[in-house]
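One chain is below:
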Amino acid sequence: IRCWSNIPFITMPLSRAHGKSFAHRSELKHAKRIVVKLGSAVVTRGDECGLALGRLASIVEQVSMLQNQGREMMIVTSGAVAFGKQRLRHEILLSQSVRQALHSGQSQLKDMAIPVLEARACAAAGQSGLMALYEAMFTQYSICAAQILVTNLDFHDEQKRRNLNGTLHELLRMNIVPIINTNDAVVPPPEPNSDLQGVNVISVKDNDSLAARLAVEMKTDLLIVLSDVEGLFDSPPGSDDAKLIDIFYPGDQQSVTFGTKSRVGMGGMEAKVKAALWALQGGTSVVIANGTHPKISGHVITDIVEGKKVGTFFSEVKPAGPTVEQQAEMARAGGRTLAALQPEQRAEIIYRLADLLTDQREDILLANKKDLQEAENKGRLALPLLKRLSLSTSKLNSLAIGLRQIAASSQDSVGRVIRRTRIAKDLDLEQVTVPIGVLLVIFESRPDCLPQVSALAIASGNGLLLKGGKEAAHSNQILHHLTQEALSIHGVRDAVQLVNTREEVEDLCRLDKLIDLIIPRGSSQLVRNIQKAAKGIPVMGHSEGICHVYVDTDASVEKVTRIIRDSKCEYPAACNALETLLIHRDLLRTPLFDQIIDMLRVEQVKIHAGPKFASYLTFSPSEVKSLRTEYGDLECCIEVVDSVQEAVEHIHKYGSSHTDVIITENEKTAEFFLQHVDSACVFWNASTRFSDGYRFGLGAEVGISTSRIHARGPVGIEGLLTTKWLLRGDNHVVSDFSEHGSMKYLHESLPLPQRNAS
């Protein structure tokens, strides 16, 4: 890692044989030579008179960061005409004001008219100022910039073309950023001959075609075209059905309807697409993206180079399967069909999946063995993660039992009437349960999660997108195949989709128009990352599982060590494992306290002392760095409290609202704890490990939620449902209920229909 100016950066090997464009976004991080084309709408202000200085400063910062990583950056910029127009307008106004002040007095100044300014004159006046601005900005990052003005003739004359090529290579060799623009002060009208026909000919008509020509001439790895739209849409942006195209392939032009060009500039989106396809054919990858949006313009260039899903990526390689957007739409359609099935049919699918888990046991374990061998060979997974990755006959049998529980309990989940009200005569209102829509479940190293979550989604009539970790690829593939086989018995195979593309989790979290709820299953770091990345999509889950056990003065000696041992040692990596042990001060230096410490030592649990506990000891264990620590291993913190009230206050201050326990024989103290601790799960004389959907009788869970709305604790079928209102009337209108109307509101509660006895 080196530092240049105030920007830290990493020098990386960035070399590849030019001649073939990148096939996937994830490969863009290997781009060595990059051209950034700044459209007129990006560089200029909204009034088209002057430059968008904040936006330009942000672009320069991103280009500087990439240059300092060892990449070779070039900029094709517009803006000379707009900058010149601003300068000339100022000069004309100043000149007119002086003349009119001499002849007519100040009262006539407001009537001055600005003449129409000729573009070439504006360009001549603006080019030097534009370049001076770029130089000043790049100087802040210790980077030198150089200006190159070109015309179409410079590419058609072989000698000029070689000179241009040599100049650019020499500038790049000296770590200088070339800033290229068409010489608009002298540029002739575009030649109508060769309009982007063939690899060897392209007419430089605007900065789009200039950038494409330059990218191919210089054997550039990546061309980034920044405009004032998010990318390429299948119809004009702003129209009702317009959808952003994530990846555009040669030959897809027929499926696109182009709109008008941008508010400024020479070319519209059609010109950009033609230039992009020409560059792609010449071996340069292309991304068209929005460089004006205030929320993304500050990192749009670096996001593209990092392979994030920004704008439209042009690729010559079509994926074998559907895109993730298509998978989400398939899940939506399949989920709606699934919700329309009879409850017995949905249950039948889940029973079939349970049978397949045991019938196809050998194939599942064989696939899982491949995952385990690959993980061990790579040596990337810690022992707790390897345990999560591992499947066994007993695990599959337990899974099958859990799925049958879900099937049995799902008979009246969707479409259940939970409220009936008679609004008025012959006007009845019902509130009924319905699926949420499309769920995205992201899970790590836990292939057993796939059939559990699939069964819950099927039972609740939701479409499902699954994104598993690469370490469980073989296991996930066969389990998903079996899930779709079970779904096929009622023609809803597409309702559950496994995402196998190279989509990053952060990109999936941006699909707010396709996904209704994200459920992460994995480490607290994974959950935090997803909560941070989710854009407009609710996330159900918990970022931490800081679970407490409070040992009261009236605790039973027999119960204390059993409950603490089970809570901490049965599965220390689980989110519902004990992390902080709170002990009443009066129990210090008692036989019970000694038994607790001896048991933890026998189980090889490393003890960290809280501040108050450490103050009571002459020689204490290592003092805890933070009381908000989730260890996920055979470690825990011990802290001392003076009362049950203080225990509750400690939990509220340092806990994560997951699961908290009191051990006591005093019922009054226990009830105080149960009523006052504000966590998703609060237990009395029971292990924290009971906080689990299977143990709660839910069959399975999609996760444990610590949020304050919708669902808390282990989330089963009920947590995957929302409601809708059904109103049945007979020619009712609101005006009939006005002061002088003929009808009156009744608002009578009606009895609910009998639930299915099963």
